[in-house]
Write a structure and sequence with these properties.
It is a single chain. The protein is of the alpha+beta class and 222 residues long. It folds into two domains: 103 residues, Glutaredoxin (3-Layer(aba) Sandwich), CATH 3.40.30; 110 residues, Glutathione S-transferase Yfyf (Class Pi), Chain A, domain 2. The chain is 50% helix and 13% strand. A hairpin with a 2-residue loop joins β2 and β3. α5 packs antiparallel against α6 and α7 packs across α8. The relative contact order is 0.18. Bound molecules: glutathione. The site of glutathione has 13 residues, from α1, α2 and α4.
């Protein structure tokens, strides 16, 4: 059985999960693969303990163990899962559509999940009194200034970003999770709002839904 190493923690305001690991969890669910979650201690990831570095030299989550194979980095893992377990396919066949899917996944990873979202998401892992509300608000404004309108344009005339549901949509499942907790309004972004609702309606979202407990989302049996 595949083991997903990730950070997840339960709070009164919901179950919070690593955004990048959520990408991998969604792909395991979409492919119907049996897996179990192994929670890595948050302090061990931030301190980059030798045990964490031995599994992922970047000192981050996620990584997976698939038998005796270890793979790290959400995008690398997801491509590996898509190659090794091809059904259902999560990339289009056409090379141009495939490139579009990978480029949009990369944009979501590099700009949305790496630059903007941590400034909103990380404070939610702390008690309310230690959050900087003004800084969180600035982060929401920065996210809404260019990145979200860019996605809104890409959704014009489309249900998903690159044909059928694909790896391009997977990081947006993590964005849907973050915004479900944060409640940031998406004014002037009707296509994106409907798209995030569509993503939340997918059965795979249940594994990262903040309303679901750690116990309810700790893996998938064969
Ligand atoms: N490019 C990596 C990014 C992984 C990443 O940044 N993970 C976060 C948790 S969502 C983490 O482990 N952060 C700890 C750190 O950056 O030191 C991926 O896609 O897996």
């Amino acid at each position: 059985m595949i083991v997903l190493h990730t950070m997840e923690r339960s709070y009164p305001w919901g179950t919070l999960r690593s955004t990048f690991s959520s990408k991998t969890k969604v792909v395991l669910e979409e492919k119907g693969l049996p897996y179990r979650v192994e929670r890595v201690r948050i302090g061990d990831v931030w301190k980059k303990t030798p045990e964490v570095l031995a599994r992922n030299p970047l000192g981050k989550v996620p990584w997976i163990d698939d038998g005796d194979v270890t793979v790290y980095d959400s995008s690398v893992i997801n491509e590996y899962l898509n190659d090794r377990y091809p059904s259902p396919a999560l990339l289009p066949v056409d090379p141009v559509a495939r490139a579009r899917a990978r480029a949009l996944e990369n944009y979501a990873d590099e700009i949305i999940l790496s630059v903007h979202v941590p400034r909103i998401w990380m404070p939610w892992w702390s008690p309310p009194e230690s959050r900087n509300a003004a800084e969180m608000q600035r982060a929401r404004e920065d996210l809404a200034a260019r990145a979200l309108p860019f996605v809104e344009e890409r959704l014009d005339g489309r249900e998903y970003l690159a044909g059928d549901f694909s790896l391009a949509d997977v990081p947006f499942m993590a964005l849907a999770m973050v915004l479900q907790v944060d409640g940031m309004p998406l004014e002037g972004l009707p296509l994106l709002s409907a798209y995030l609702e569509r993503l939340r309606a997918r059965p795979s979202y249940r594994a990262i839904d903040p309303a679901r407990s750690l116990e309810e989302s700790s893996g998938r049996s064969a």
